[in-house]
């Protein structure tokens, strides 16, 4: 008999998609129409986008291009918007049923892949990587969009556990790039992100040889304090650094000019 193989990332995707289906099943007709922090998109539109991504990965045909919209700024956005626009006149419950169906198809497909497929290098939003890592990016992206839906509807949840840990870990791994490259922090700078609330953690970044690197810190140049929800919203461009500071969502200790520069540059996702 052949070797039995189960890829852990498939289980994480299944957990995440089940959480989204559970959330969607709670929403009222009015809640599907609430605006999200994704420019131009309602809660329904966020779910329509996820439907489109998974259908694209299954090889389903791309719908006709949508009319031009001010929040669409690049070719990827144009493709995303086509799936979203096609579903704007549909009830949220209908989009949810389509999401449930397409994610079942995806799980069936992924469950049939062998180890070699998950190790195969190919294109992804983060460059040429093994398919396993591409699917980890899918876990993070879907978790962030689930949280978009929760923020918009005032229904917090699913902020702890293996999926949340993966998503927050991937966002945390970008902070070296944010501090060292985007914020251009000077050589020797050390920054501690102190995150409270669900999945609380501390992240240290030190600028060494011109690059920001993860490092355990004793006395950082700067400490930024926030809860994990504010952290992912900043990293994913849902809220600006200035808005977060003005709302009292971030505390700073140390070099405030550097702190503001980092917060202004925390958004790293497309």
CATH architecture of the largest domain: Up-down Bundle
Strand content: 5-15%
User: Structural class per helix/strand content?
Assistant: alpha+beta
Largest sheet: 5 strands, mixed
Mean pLDDT: 95
Number of domains: 2
CATH superfamily of the largest domain, by name, is dinb family like domain
Helix content: 40-55%
According to CATH, what is the class of the largest domain?
Answer: Mainly Alpha
* Amino-to-carboxy terminus distance: 45 Å
String of helices and strands: HHHHHHEEHHHEEEEHHEH
Number of helices: 12
Biggest sheet strand line-up:
5-4-3-6-7
Descriptive notes:
This protein is α+β, with helices and mostly antiparallel strands and 270 residues long. The chain folds into 2 domains: 8-158, dinb family like domain (Four Helix Bundle (Hemerythrin (Met), subunit A), Up-down Bundle), CATH 1.20.120; 168-264, Nonspecific Lipid-transfer Protein, Chain A, CATH 3.30.1050. Helices cover 51% and strands 12% of the residues. The protein contains 12 helices and 7 strands. It has helices spanning 8-24, 29-32, 43-57, 75-86, 92-111, 115-119, 131-153, 162-173, 175-182, 228-235, 241-246, 256-264, and strands spanning 121-122, 129-130, 190-196, 201-208, 211-214, 222-227, 251-254. The strands form 2 sheets. Strands 5-4-3-6-7 form a 5-stranded mixed β-sheet. A hairpin with a 6-residue loop joins β1 (121-122) and β2 (129-130). The longest helix is centred in the middle third of the chain and has 23 residues, at 131-153.
């Amino acid at each position: 008999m052949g070797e039995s193989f189960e890829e852990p990332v498939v289980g994480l995707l299944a957990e995440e998609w089940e959480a989204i289906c559970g959330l969607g099943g709670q929403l009222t007709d009015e809640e599907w129409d609430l605006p999200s922090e994704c420019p131009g998109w309602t809660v329904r539109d966020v779910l329509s986008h996820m439907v489109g991504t998974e259908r694209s990965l299954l090889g389903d045909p791309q719908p006709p291009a949508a009319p031009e919209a001010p929040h669409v700024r690049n070719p990827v956005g144009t493709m995303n918007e086509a799936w979203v626009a096609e579903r704007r006149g549909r009830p949220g419950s209908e989009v949810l049923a389509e999401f449930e169906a397409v994610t079942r198809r995806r799980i069936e497909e992924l469950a049939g892949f062998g180890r070699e497929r998950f190790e195969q290098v190919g294109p992804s939003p983060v460059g040429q990587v093994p398919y396993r890592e591409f699917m980890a990016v899918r876990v993070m992206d879907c978790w962030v969009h689930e949280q978009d839906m929760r923020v918009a509807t005032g229904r917090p949840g699913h902020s702890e556990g293996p999926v949340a840990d993966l998503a927050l870990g991937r966002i945390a791994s970008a902070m070296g790039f944010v501090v060292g490259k985007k914020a251009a922090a000077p050589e020797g700078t050390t920054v501690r992100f102190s995150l409270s609330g669900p999945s609380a953690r501390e992240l240290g970044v030190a600028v060494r040889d011109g690059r920001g690197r993860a490092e355990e810190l004793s006395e950082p140049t700067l400490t930024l304090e926030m809860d994990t929800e504010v952290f992912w919203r900043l990293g994913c461009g849902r809220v600006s650094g200035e808005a977060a500071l003005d709302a009292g969502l971030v505390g700073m200790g140390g070099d405030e000019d550097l702190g503001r520069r980092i917060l202004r540059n925390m958004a790293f996702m497309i």
